[in-house]
Structures are given as structure tokens and as C-alpha cells.
């Protein structure tokens, strides 16, 4: 089960503080529901979470073209005008997404995200749902 949302606040803040050019951090379920966020607008976080569901599905489809791949998405990085978007698998059925300015240290973002996932990945899980309820 997902820990209470409030328990994630300090962890996400720690990630943002460690990478000053970070604008928004979202923890989401594989089906695109926001679990937690730091920075930015709650509605934007919901839109990011929904878009991430499609992105992880696309990454899994592309992964099937790589021999010996299990189809699992580990990390996606998108460079956009004005910044970067990062999404990393963060536990069973959960993902960590970060939006950052164009001046961000790309290696630092990836490292800090990975460190966070290693530290708390077991807690960043989202069980499958049926009719809006965990199964």
C-alpha cells in the first residue's frame, strides 16, 4: 500500500532542494493517478501524472523492440524548449517524474532521483485498482 501522502513531502522537498533548478516533482501510479507532488500547481501535477501513464506505455512498447528486454521502463528523459522532463520507475506500479529548468545539471537530477528511489522505492508502490479501489 502507498504510505500516507504527507510522508512523501519531505522526501520530495529534499530532492528539489538538492537540485535547485527543479520546478515540479510528481509521484504517480502506473495508471496516471497522482500520489504526491512537490512544487507547482496541483492541476498541473495531475496533468503530468496522466501524461506519464501514456509515456511509460510508449516506452514499454519501444522496449519490446530491444532483444532480451523485459519491456520495463527504467528512465525517460525529454529535452524541451526551456527545460527537461525526467521519469523513472520508482517501485511496483509507481513512477517519479521531475520537471526542471534548462540550466539544470542533467546528471545530478538522474543521480538524485535514483538515490531517492533506492532509499524509498519499496514504499513507492501502487497496487492495481479495480473500480477505483486497490485489489
Q: What features would you describe in this structure?
A:
The protein has helices at 6-18, 42-63, 106-120; strands spanning 22-29, 34-38, 75-80, 83-91, 94-101, 129-130, 133-134. By secondary structure, the chain is an alpha+beta fold. The chain has one domain (6-134): Dynein light chain 2a, cytoplasmic (Beta-Lactamase, 2-Layer Sandwich), CATH 3.30.450. Strands 2-1-5-4-3 form a five-stranded antiparallel beta sheet, with helices on both faces. It is globular, with a radius of gyration of 14 Å. It holds the Pfam family Robl_LC7.
Spatial strand order of the main sheet: 2-1-5-4-3
Outline: globular
In round numbers, the mean pLDDT is: 84
For this structure, the CATH topology is: Beta-Lactamase
Q: How many structural domains?
A: 1
Beta strands, count: 7
N/C terminus separation: 10 Å
CATH homologous superfamily heading: Dynein light chain 2a, cytoplasmic
Amino acid at each position: 500500500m502507498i504510505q500516507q501522502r504527507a510522508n512523501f513531502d519531505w522526501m520530495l522537498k529534499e530532492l528539489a532542494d538538492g537540485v535547485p533548478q527543479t520546478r515540479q516533482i510528481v509521484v504517480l501510479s502506473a495508471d496516471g493517478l497522482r500520489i504526491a507532488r512537490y512544487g507547482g500547481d496541483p492541476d498541473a501535477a495531475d496533468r503530468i501524472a496522466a501524461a506519464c501513464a501514456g509515456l511509460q506505455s510508449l516506452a514499454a512498447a519501444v522496449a519490446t523492440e530491444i532483444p532480451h528486454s523485459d519491456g520495463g521502463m527504467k528512465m525517460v528523459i525529454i529535452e524541451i524548449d526551456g527545460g527537461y522532463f525526467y521519469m523513472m520507475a520508482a517501485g511496483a506500479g509507481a513512477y517519479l517524474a521531475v520537471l526542471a529548468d534548462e540550466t539544470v545539471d542533467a546528471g545530478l537530477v538522474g543521480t538524485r532521483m535514483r538515490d531517492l528511489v533506492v532509499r524509498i522505492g519499496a514504499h513507492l508502490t501502487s497496487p492495481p485498482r479495480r473500480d477505483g479501489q486497490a485489489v
